[in-house]
Amino acid sequence: MSFRHLPSVDALIREVRAGQPDAPHELLRDAAQAVLAQARKAIAAGSPPPSLPALVAAVHAELAASVAPSLRPLINATGVVIQTNLGRAPLSAAARAAMQAVGAGYSNLEYDLVEGERGSRHVHLEQLLVRLTGAEAALVVNNNAAAVYLALIALAAGREVIVSRGQAVEIGGGFRIPDVLRASGATLVEVGTTNRTYVRDYAAAISERTALILRVHASNFRLIGFMHEPELAELAEVAHQHGLPLLDDLGSGTLIDTRQFGLQAEPTVQASVAAGADLVTFSGDKLLGGPQAGIIVGRRDLVGQLRRHPLARALRVDKSTIAGLAATLHSYLRGAALREIPVWQLISTPVTALQQRAEAMAATLVAASLPARAIACESAIGGGSLPGATQPSFGVALTPASSNATALAARLRAGDPPVVARIVDEQVVCDLRSVFPAEDATLAAALIAAYR
Ligand SMILES: *Cc1c(COP(=O)(O)O)cnc(C)c1O
Fold first, then answer.
1. What Å distances lie between residue 163 and 48, 130, 201, CA to CA?
2. Third-level CATH fold of 93-340
3. What pLDDT is stored for residue 403 in this prediction?
């Protein structure tokens, strides 16, 4: 054993210090200790002691790694366009520019430029949302979970909320409708059965304790076969006959009809408003394609009640969210959403375009001696929208010689940028539905690097 050939921690820090004049002592010490511990382990396992320059280089590398950001961009080759674990909607160029511009300095976030006095942060989004959805009023909070929670606390605390048994569901990430109701101080009254609920079930459950009727969009599962749920308009009618509001939690919601892309229909926000929902809640970063936010549109008096509730202050959005969401909504207003909003760019890409890119990428990989080929596949939309629906897509499949697809996928995740792919039948599949054309060359290079 030759541990005595290793420098002391202090001696190693002195060597490194010249190249790291500003680094705090504790940071250098932790890195030097980690490198020396590694070296002792290697020596104990029979390696020769590393040279001083090698140790210094290792400390610099350790320092760089210790201050590297944990949150990093990556290439989403899963084919799932809205993936909560991968950050949901990528932002449009306009949204990014607006967030940058507002974030870089001061703004009229809560300042009325005409009157020269205090204003409201809500004005920047409300008129846009009113025009796009046909609702009377709008309010934006941190995310849709917060939107539902605020609506229930403000309108139903201490009273009853009627929900179909088939909708008392878990959305994911621990968001369970029965739990949210309990946390808001409301009592859940489940009606109907898991698979069949009728308007008369709702009507029979209404009493003087009822605060509202809640409909929850089944975001991540599908009831098929012998099932029935009332139309939203029927629910609105029974709610209004009893002077109750109808709250519609759309989850994703969309302003664009998804059927034009060969997908099944995801309910549009405009349709919910038109069908008589008194409040509609949906996410900013699902099919809307903007930053994380929870959007509430509906009746002016109810939105006002929510806005005045003390919790609204705790759930308010910051200036960069308002800027990014406003820019995203402007794309819809100008009729440019399909062209400008990344989620819609990806969903609306014709499969023939994906096939061409997959074939070109496969040819590049084959030329580099990789066992690659272009394959047809199906991608899910994800993000609690269009459950069970898939879209035809194209990707590149790699069959590792050792048939160890799991190991290849792990090397892809360890790369820079990381690539998250799918494993299908012992192959690593990169589905191009969720890959931007500008990423193709980087993806091909990452595949080549990971394969070697
Ligand atoms: C996604 C979803 C939520 C939660 O929305 P977040 O924006 O993730 O907070 C709530 N309800 C439904 C139906 C959803 O699909």
1. 70, 27, 10
2. Aspartate Aminotransferase; domain 2 (3.40.640)
3. 64
